[in-house]
């Protein structure tokens, strides 16, 4: 495996971590001044983040859990927050949610220097430094998301080990193993009539639905998925969905279950977190589809449902290719341009090859891919099907 990109790996003038962090001291979450002795000889993660950005808010507890586990086993790892917050109260509120030190809010020169030195253009960002100040990994946030504390010490060799282990697990994956990856070994899921043995799902196409109550995108997609589930269950017995709860409270879990006609994992946290980490679930709702052989068919089930409804079943590459070919053929019958009630400019038809990449339809607010009507000037895009509305679209002359 090739090494990571070099990002200013040679510390200026030597001096280890102190050559990178040039201020006189750091601050604790309580606001107390802390001197550099806390960092000597340790691997350091510079955490660039801000409380106003949802991805930072979501990633911080993930990093905190890994940090606490590493501290508990004496791994020699520390994190230093480099805040991108715009005012001191926001910085202090955000820092109090963390168990690590921070660059003082008022040290603007140091924060600017660090951002420039490590070419920080997006957050959250976790730059990992060796005790000598050289870069171990330019951004380990993805590794922490995927592997938690197992990613330590974040070297290329360690990442290669983890990825090889992933490949072995995916190659030997079965449905029973998926429900045992937390080490607890689930034999049942719950349904409307009580417990359902996982063994009864073997040989079926199974959707693992990661969702939560009071999540607006989840509620919208759950309603659509429920209609498609009902349609498919009326056609085949070889399909099932299992709710993998991402709810923060049991009351939300129970409310979610009441809105869903399929099976569910019990609300005990560990199996859901283990599955979310295994499939690298970053946002909800997410629909992972597992085939009859127990292998992962797709992690993009949500998008496929939005694009093709129940026709996406069984979600295989072969089925999606057939649907795409049918869509290519159907597109030949659409006008090259039209005007739509939702936009003032003329829209032109585009394909994936001519600019119709992934988008969110401005008419129905669902995901789209490939064929679309697009305003080149404004980026306004709608599904071809949303243009079929006689009141909403009229053929252009192009």
TrEMBL record:
EC assignment: 1.8.1.8
Catalysed reaction, written as an equation: [protein]-dithiol + NAD(+) = [protein]-disulfide + NADH + H(+); [protein]-dithiol + NADP(+) = [protein]-disulfide + NADPH + H(+)
Pfam families linked to this entry: C1_2, Thioredoxin_8
GO molecular function: protein-disulfide reductase [NAD(P)H] activity
PROSITE patterns membership: THIOREDOXIN_2 (PS51352)
Entry keyword set: NAD, Oxidoreductase, Repeat
Segments forming domain Thioredoxin: 145-328
Family: Belongs to the nucleoredoxin family.
Protein name (Swiss-Prot/TrEMBL): protein-disulfide reductase
Species per Swiss-Prot/TrEMBL record: Panicum hallii var. hallii
């Amino acid at each position: 495996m090739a090494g990571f990109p070099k990002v200013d790996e040679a510390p200026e003038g030597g001096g280890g971590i102190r050559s990178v962090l040039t201020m006189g001291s750091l601050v604790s979450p309580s606001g107390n001044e802390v001197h550099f002795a806390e960092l000597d000889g340790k691997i350091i993660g510079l955490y660039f983040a801000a409380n106003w950005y949802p991805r930072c808010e979501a990633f911080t507890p993930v990093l905190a859990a890994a940090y606490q586990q590493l501290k508990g086993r004496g791994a020699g790892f520390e994190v230093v927050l480099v805040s991108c917050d715009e005012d001191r109260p926001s910085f202090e509120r955000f820092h109090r949610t963390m168990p690590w030190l921070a660059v003082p809010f008022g040290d603007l020169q140091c924060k600017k220097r660090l951002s420039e030195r490590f070419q920080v253009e997006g957050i959250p960002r976790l730059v990992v430094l060796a005790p000598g100040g050289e870069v171990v990994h330019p951004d380990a946030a993805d590794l922490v998301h995927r592997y938690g504390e197992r990613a330590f010490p974040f070297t290329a060799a360690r990442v290669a080990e983890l990825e090889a282990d992933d490949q072995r697990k995916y190659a030997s994956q079965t449905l029973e193993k998926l429900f045992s990856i937390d080490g607890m070994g689930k034999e049942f899921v719950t349904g409307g009539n009580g417990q359902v043995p996982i063994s009864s799902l073997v040989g079926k196409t199974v959707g693992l639905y990661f969702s939560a109550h009071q999540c607006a995108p989840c509620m919208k997609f759950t309603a659509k998925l429920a209609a498609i589930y009902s349609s498919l269950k009326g056609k085949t017995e070889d399909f099932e969905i299992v709710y993998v709860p991402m709810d923060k409270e049991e009351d939300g879990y129970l409310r979610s279950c009441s809105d869903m006609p399929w099976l569910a994992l019990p609300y005990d946290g560990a199996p859901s977190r283990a599955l979310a980490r295994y499939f690298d679930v970053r946002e909800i709702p997410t629909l992972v589809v597992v085939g009859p052989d127990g292998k992962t068919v797709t992690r993009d089930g949500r998008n496929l449902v939005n694009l093709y409804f129940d026709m996406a079943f069984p979600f295989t590459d072969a089925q999606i290719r057939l649907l795409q070919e049918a869509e290519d053929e159907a597109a030949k019958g659409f006008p090259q341009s039209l005007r739509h009630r939702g936009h003032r400019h003329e829209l032109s038809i585009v394909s994936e090859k001519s600019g119709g990449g992934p988008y969110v339809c401005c008419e129905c607010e669902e995901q789209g891919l490939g064929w679309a009507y697009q305003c080149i000037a404004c980026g306004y895009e709608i599904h071809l099907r949303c243009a079929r509305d006689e009141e909403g679209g009229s053929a252009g002359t192009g």
